[in-house]
Write a structure and sequence with these properties.
globular
């Protein structure tokens, strides 16, 4: 087999890695220089003797890059994957700040605290923006079918079909299925099967092997296969078989040489609850203050076009199925609830949640508000009072919840949110099953950085306007 395959990412993965390293270096140098001039301006002349500030300004970008390399920020398996990349950048800034502060204290360097406290946030923000731009570019390439990793799927027919369907639906994950292979029925057949696998890898120029279902569960087979392809530049992808459960809930524990995947119970620790509630309080207060003129303008528009009431309130199902009163700007004609049963009967089957295309009850102003999600802004008061969160599964009316399947009820173990994964992934364009999967993915694998990412992506989803009803 070839030792190096093309197309694992975009062109050569090492080339992409070095390009990102180069842009990181340029960003850090620019951020350091910007912070220097913002803090000092022309107070430090070029002919001034070299001092702590000049030393820090020169070495800081180099040291920061070294920290990023040490933390694996250029490992191609973590580049553009989930929030791992972003979390490493944020943590690198914390480490750099701690080291600079410690060295300055121990060696009594007269380093400007203001300069350092400007440089680190500017550097972190600049790196996050730069990596986001890289990510959007790469995802765009993958959606066009460029730079996908040629993958051979191994497993039974049904298992392969399921995994292949997921890979086709998610090209941004970076895989293109080029062949499938039935797992050998017994150990006696392994030798011939490995020979055929080598030929398939060569013919299809494959750079990854994905094990589906029972193939991933056979520990001896997985081990033998990993040994067989070792050093060949082929990634081995092993399905964990735990569905939507990923990230922080899953850990590998080795007990007396027995490797086991351990799944933690779905529950936020006290520190996580404090962090999430703090984000909700800060975000809702800032949002209400900054958006108060917009809230007043919308209220006036509703009154002038369709009279009172300004707000629509409805009982919704909250965390653990406790009900609460949710607030929205009224976007429908008065008495709209009376037409709901009739419209529900006429709608196409899409799970228990009622959705109507071109709902005749919606007013002209209401349609504008829905297009830009402005009708949801009063829910900031729900967030402030603790009934809702900024991010979480969207709350549904009680008559919709009555139609939930047992699986669907699991989305109610989390506090409902103003926005969520389904909203940034397609809003009302998604099917009920797809929406539920995203909600379960969220509640099973909550992280603070995940909430921040969803909030950032919500802005993009609202501007794009897809799925708004």
């Amino acid at each position: 087999m070839k030792k190096l395959k093309e197309g694992a990412l975009v062109a050569n993965p090492d080339t992409l890695k070095y390009r990102i390293l180069a842009t990181d270096a340029a960003v850090l140098i620019a951020a350091t220089a910007l912070a220097f001039f913002v803090r000092f301006g022309d107070q430090v002349a070029p002919e001034t003797a070299i001092g702590p500030i000049q030393i820090v300004g020169t070495l800081l970008p180099l040291f920061w890059l070294a920290v990023l390399i040490f933390m694996g920020a250029y490992d191609r398996r973590s580049l553009f994957v989930g929030l791992t990349e972003y979390s490493r950048i944020v943590m690198s800034g914390v480490i750099v700040l701690a080291v600079v502060a410690t060295v300055s204290f121990l060696f009594k360097f007269d380093t400007s605290r203001a300069y350092v406290l400007v440089t680190i946030p500017v550097g972190v923000l600049a790196l996050l923006v730069e990596r986001y731009i890289w990510r959007r570019w790469l995802l765009g390439q993958r959606k066009k079918g460029i730079g996908l990793s040629s993958t051979i799927v191994v497993g039974d027919e049904d298992e392969c079909a399921s995994l292949i369907e997921q890979m086709v639906e998610r090209p941004w994950a970076g895989y293109r299925v080029v062949a499938r292979s039935q797992r050998p029925p017994s150990r006696d057949a392994w030798a011939n099967w490995f020979e055929q696998l080598d030929r398939d890898l060569e013919v299809h120029n494959a750079t990854a092997i994905a094990l589906a279902g029972s193939s991933a569960a056979d520990a001896i087979f997985v081990r033998e296969l990993s040994w067989h392809i070792e050093g060949e530049g082929v990634d081995l992808l092993v399905g964990a078989g735990v569905g939507a459960t990923t990230g922080p809930r899953v850990s590998l524990r080795v007990a007396s040489g027995l490797p086991l995947l351990h799944l933690d119970e779905v529950a936020l620790r006290n520190t996580q609850r404090v962090a999430k509630r703090s984000l909700d309080l800060f975000g809702s207060i800032i949002g209400l203050v900054l958006l108060s003129p917009v809230l007043l303008a919308i209220a006036l528009a509703v009154v002038l076009t369709s009279g009172f009431p300004i707000l629509f309130r409805q009982e919704r199902a909250g965390r653990d199925q406790r009900t609460f009163r949710m607030w929205k700007f009224r976007t429908m004609v008065r008495g709209a609830d009376a037409l709901r049963p009739q419209l529900r009967e006429a709608q196409e089957e899409n799970g228990p949640v009622f959705k109507a295309d071109n709902d005749p009850r919606v007013t002209k102003v209401g349609r504008f508000l829905r297009r830009w999600s402005l009708d949801e802004l009063p829910q900031l008061f729900n967030v402030l009072t603790g009934d809702m969160s900024l991010v979480g599964p969207r709350p549904h009316p009680l008559d919709d919840v009555e139609l939930y399947a047992d699986r669907d009820l699991r989305r109610l173990i989390a506090k409902p949110g103003m926005t969520g994964l389904w909203q940034v992934a397609g809003r009302s364009d998604l099917s009920w099953d797809a929406s539920i999967e995203l909600d379960l993915l969220y509640v099973e694998n909550w992280t603070f950085l995940g909430d921040l990412a969803i909030l950032a992506r919500t802005v993009q989803a609202v501007i794009r306007g897809s799925g708004a009803r």
